[in-house]
Amino acid sequence: MSPDDELAPLPTAELHLHIEGTLEPELAVALAARNRVRLRFDGPEELRRAYRFSDLQSFLDLYYELMAVLQRPEDFTDLAEAYLRTAAAQGVRHAEVFVDPQAHLARGVPLEVVFEGLGEAFATAEERHGVSVALIPCFLRERDPAEAEELLPRLLRYRPLVIGIGLVSAETGRPPELFERVFARAADEGLHRVAHAGEEGPAEYVTAALDHLGIERVDHGIRSMEDPSVVARLRAEQVPLTVCPLSNVALRGVDRLADHPLKAMLDAGLAATVNSDDPAYFGGYLHDNVAAVTRALGLTLDERRRLAENSWRASFLPAAERDRHLAAVAAAVPQS
Ligand SMILES: Nc1ncnc2[nH]cnc12
Ligand SMILES: [Zn+2]
């Protein structure tokens, strides 16, 4: 790799990506027209101007509002297809994609519409874009945990596309323990488990998600850095963290990228990865995030290689697949 290629994308797994968060303003407006859904925005430019947030809740309000344009299977197919095309150009070779079934059910869109629509794009993703895909439906933490328990058996029907479950939405005041039962049942079914924790919520929620939900990765987890005992545990257990730098700045969890804890996480020996979260809303896809933190934090090529390697080790791919991708990273950046 020459110095000019210093910022070229490395083969990476995207492990923290909400498919609904890839809804670009142009596609939102086109789908609104196709489905005769009225939006309170005049066009893509006005909509893009609304993609400014003061915190997580202000983003979630718009994110849930705009889901109204997703009505039919082909809307979900088009959404996923657009993401895969962009992600492939940014070095993504495998994606474990989040989806919010309860948000769609609550507005009258059946599960089949969501999963069949996404499944259509994902079925040909490897062949068309060189990206393998799996799906992780997430429960909304503001809703009754009993609803998540009722939904779980219906999600199992979509295996093997569905490989696990997650926990998302506004964190504060909704500790992980509330969802202990549904996560235990998912574990009994052999599903993988992840949860958003330590994004806006405190470091204790990271510990609680590990202890009560048995999660295998922490989504975000940046507030773990406020508690040395949590950092020590994450390091000792090499728990992967799916960090989303542009998201943290857009939602004001971090003031400026230059203040982002990603480098401190790597320095502390944590298994951090970089991901895009809701890229249409936060100003960039996976490699945009990597390039931005590389500049803001002065990451070395060796640190970028570590991020890519961490993504493969943290993925839920079979070991042979993981090793094949790790070899591709090594070939792209020979170890110094
Ligand atoms: N960054 C985020 N945090 C919590 N829930 C989300 N749902 C979509 N994006 C999210
Ligand atoms: Zn997220």
| Helix/strand structural class | alpha/beta
What separation lies between the terminal Cα atoms? 11 Å
Q: Give me the side-by-side strand order of the main sheet.
A: 1-2-3-4-5-6-7-8
CATH architecture: Alpha-Beta Barrel
Poorly predicted spans: none
Bound molecules: adenine, zinc ion
Q: Taking all residues together, what is the mean pLDDT?
A: 96
Please give the radius of gyration in angstroms: 19 Å
Q: What sort of overall outline do the alpha carbons produce when their principal axes are compared?
A: globular
Q: What is the CATH homology-level superfamily?
A: Metal-dependent hydrolases
Amount of helix: 40-55%
What is the CATH topology descriptor? TIM Barrel
The string of secondary-structure elements, in order, is EHHHHEHHHEHEHEHEHEHHEHHHH
Major sheet details: 8 strands, parallel
Please, how many helices? 17
Proportion of beta-strand residues: 5-15%
- SS elements, strand count: 8
Number of domains: 1
Family: Belongs to the metallo-dependent hydrolases superfamily. Adenosine and AMP deaminases family. Adenine deaminase type 2 subfamily.
Pfam families: A_deaminase
InterPro entries: A_deaminase_dom (IPR001365), ADE (IPR028892), Ado/ade_deaminase (IPR006330), Metal_Hydrolase (IPR032466)
Function: Catalyzes the hydrolytic deamination of adenine to hypoxanthine. Plays an important role in the purine salvage pathway and in nitrogen catabolism.
